[in-house]
């Protein structure tokens, strides 16, 4: 608690100067009072002795009920979560019934990494490359999660990774990789195949 | 074709055991709707041709992706012709949408350009490839230059004339010819009637510079525009009327010592080099202020670091070629064919910006080769037709 040093008022001061000085003293006093009030309240709420701002954390719940905590600043990368935080719906755990636990854990890891400061672009790119260096089905799950949570950077990264799976493949190879049932009738398929015989060799 | 790699798959508890290396049997694919469109926007056009054949929904997704997520962009086509017999022509293409370089392969059914295109391969106004010999005039104007047409040669013998295709008329003008009375003569070939006719000669000021090496050519639907590269003086020729118009002063900045002309969409564009040939200080792009107007406004200046790359080791820039189409302007330095400069108009903002593309396979390629540049708006339809007729397909060789 600071103690105010009260200046001695000289007898020869003019009325306006005296008024100004009184006003200034009054303001200093009221400021001290409010500061001490705030310190008291902070000291009573936080467990540590330092009056610092607590980090806001958002809790996410996977489809199996597992909970994951993510710092608010990292969560802001998801437009969906950002909207919830803005509307103050993020105080209770947010249920994500279509995202599995192991995928959600990785998504949280991605957001945390991309919220870090001072990471150089080159190493972040390498980290991203490792992140998508997983099985196809896992990448598809990342895409679903990134799409639902609206995380543009993750969505771009995963879509690019899937695009790389499409490059250089013939239609038959693409069908196999993605397990797609062709919707063309057998006659149409045969015609297409004959037309493009040379193109698909 | 590139080797495909299939990643070994991990399995859910509910799915059957698969052998290592086999394909995942996923019960669903998340790839549909916007997500599929977004994914396809990262796939080069040449691969989208195959992707569109996978299923009906993928075919629709390819169209949707190209329309809403990442539109096709004009390709730059680089044609190399060996200066030694049999003067084989090979083509490389650059797709700025996906930043890939491709080699063009010819199929068994290909109708070759004139067997030995003994005449020098040249390009004009971004879309025409041609060769003039005493025996015939061969030319190609389709986007991928897969079909070549031949005409009887013009009556006057010319060396390196200006050639341009305007509508259904082929204009041949000038060309240094010592033995002819009129070095400025102009002849027009009617593609439908297959006949040549003589038209009004080129304007007298072009007397000493009437070869294509001195003149930059651009065409719109009705006219051919010819600009003297060193002075900027421009004349226009209307083949329907057979008359010359101009001259127009298309050099808004007097610091320009070399300029070339083209059309980007409906707009006349000029690329000019500032400074002098020993020391290029800058490169600027100008465009006509309105369609049909001959007054120019500055569009975009090339950033300094790119201008440095344009100069060769002795800081000289000998000459540049320009191809333009739609929202793209490509600029190539004849002394540094491995690097291509482009200026693109961004759809959303309307702002133009410069960039570069390096051809990874160009090193040493231009030795003993003549190079000609054209530009084409290539879509799925063009690639499909090229493959279907066996005339050509594009294969990405590098950086898969």
From TrEMBL, chain A:
GO biological process, one term: jasmonic acid mediated signaling pathway
UniProt entry keywords in alphabetical sequence: Ubl conjugation pathway
Keyword Chaperone included in the entry's annotation: no
Domain SKP1 component dimerisation: 153-199
PANTHER family xrefs: SKP1
UniProt record similarity statement: Belongs to the SKP1 family.
Record-given protein name: SKP1-like protein 1A
Organism field: Rhodamnia argentea
TrEMBL record, chain B:
Residue numbers spanned by region Disordered: 1-23
Biased composition (Polar residues): 1-11
GO cellular component assignments: cytosol; nucleus
Protein name: F-box/kelch-repeat protein At1g23390-like
Source species: Rhodamnia argentea
Residue ranges occupied by any F-box domain in the UniProt entry: 34-68
A Pfam cross-reference name: F-box
Gene: LOC115751343
GO biological process: proteasome-mediated ubiquitin-dependent protein catabolic process
InterPro entries assigned to the protein according to its UniProt record, in alphabetical order: F-box-like_dom_sf, F-box/kelch-repeat_ARATH, F-box_dom, Kelch-typ_b-propeller, Kelch_1
Superkingdom field: Eukaryota
SUPFAM superfamilies: F-box domain (SSF81383), Kelch motif (SSF117281)
PANTHER family: F-BOX DOMAIN-CONTAINING PROTEIN, F-BOX/KELCH-REPEAT PROTEIN SKIP4
Family matches, as Gene3D superfamilies: Kelch-type beta propeller
């Amino acid at each position: 608690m600071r103690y105010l040093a009260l200046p001695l008022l000289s007898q020869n001061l003019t009325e306006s100067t005296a008024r100004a000085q009184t006003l200034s003293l009054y303001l200093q006093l009221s400021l001290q009072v409010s500061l001490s009030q705030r310190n008291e309240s902070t000291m009573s709420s936080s467990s540590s002795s330092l009056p610092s701002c607590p980090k806001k954390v958002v809790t996410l719940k996977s489809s199996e009920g597992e909970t994951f905590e993510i710092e608010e600043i990292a969560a802001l990368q998801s437009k969906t979560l950002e909207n919830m935080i803005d509307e103050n719906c993020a105080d209770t755990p947010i249920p994500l019934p279509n995202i599995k636990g192991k995928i959600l854990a990785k998504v949280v890891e991605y957001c945390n990494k991309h919220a870090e400061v001072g990471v150089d672009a080159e190493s972040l790119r390498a980290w991203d490359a490792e992140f998508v260096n997983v099985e196809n089905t896992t990448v598809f799950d990342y895409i679903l999660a990134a799409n639902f949570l609206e995380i543009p950077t993750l969505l771009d990264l995963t879509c690019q990774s899937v695009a790389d799976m499409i490059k250089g493949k013939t239609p038959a190879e693409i069908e196999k990789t993605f397990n797609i049932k062709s919707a063309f009738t057998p006659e149409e398929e045969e015609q297409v195949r004959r037309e493009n015989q040379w193109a698909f060799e | 074709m590139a080797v495909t790699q299939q990643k070994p798959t991990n399995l859910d508890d509910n799915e059957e055991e698969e052998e290592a290396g086999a394909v995942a049997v996923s019960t669903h694919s998340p790839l549909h709707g916007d997500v599929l469109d977004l994914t396809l926007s990262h796939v080069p056009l040449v691969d989208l041709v195959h992707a569109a054949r996978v299923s009906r929904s993928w075919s629709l997704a390819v169209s949707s992706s190209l329309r809403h997520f990442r539109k096709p962009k004009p390709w730059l086509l680089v044609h190399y012709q060996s200066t030694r017999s049999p003067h084989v022509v090979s083509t490389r293409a650059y797709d700025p949408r996906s930043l890939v370089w491709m080699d063009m392969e010819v199929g068994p059914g290909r109708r070759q350009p004139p067997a030995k295109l003994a005449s020098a391969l040249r390009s004009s106004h971004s879309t025409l490839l041609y060769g003039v010999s005493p025996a015939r005039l061969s030319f190609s104007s389709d986007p991928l230059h897969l079909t070549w047409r031949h005409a009887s040669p013009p009556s006057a013998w010319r060396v390196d004339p200006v050639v341009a295709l305007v509508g259904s008329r082929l204009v041949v003008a000038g060309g240094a010819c010592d033995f002819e009375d009129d070095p400025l003569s102009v002849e027009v070939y009617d593609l439908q009637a297959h006949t040549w006719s003589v038209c009004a000669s080129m304007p007298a000021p072009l007397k000493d510079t009437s070869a294509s090496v001195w003149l930059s050519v651009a065409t719109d639907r009705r006219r051919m525009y010819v600009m003297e590269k060193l002075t900027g003086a421009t004349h226009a020729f209307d083949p329907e009327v057979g008359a010359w118009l101009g001259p127009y002063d298309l050099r808004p900045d007097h610091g320009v010592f070399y300029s070339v002309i083209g059309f980007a969409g409906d707009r006349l564009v000029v690329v000019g080099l500032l400074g002098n040939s020993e020391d290029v200080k800058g490169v600027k792009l100008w465009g006509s202020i309105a369609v049909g107007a001959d007054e120019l406004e500055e569009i975009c200046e090339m950033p300094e670091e790119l201008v440095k790359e344009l100069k060769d080791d002795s800081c000289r820039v000998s000459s540049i070629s320009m191809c333009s189409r739609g929202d793209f302007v490509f600029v190539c330095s004849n002394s540094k064919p491995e690097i291509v400069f482009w200026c693109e108009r961004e759809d959303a903002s309307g702002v133009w910006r410069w960039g570069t593309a390096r051809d990874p396979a160009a090193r040493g390629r231009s030795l003993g080769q003549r190079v000609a540049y054209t530009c084409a708006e290539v879509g799925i339809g063009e690639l499909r037709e090229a493959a279907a007729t066996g005339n050509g397909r594009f294969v990405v060789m590098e950086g898969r």
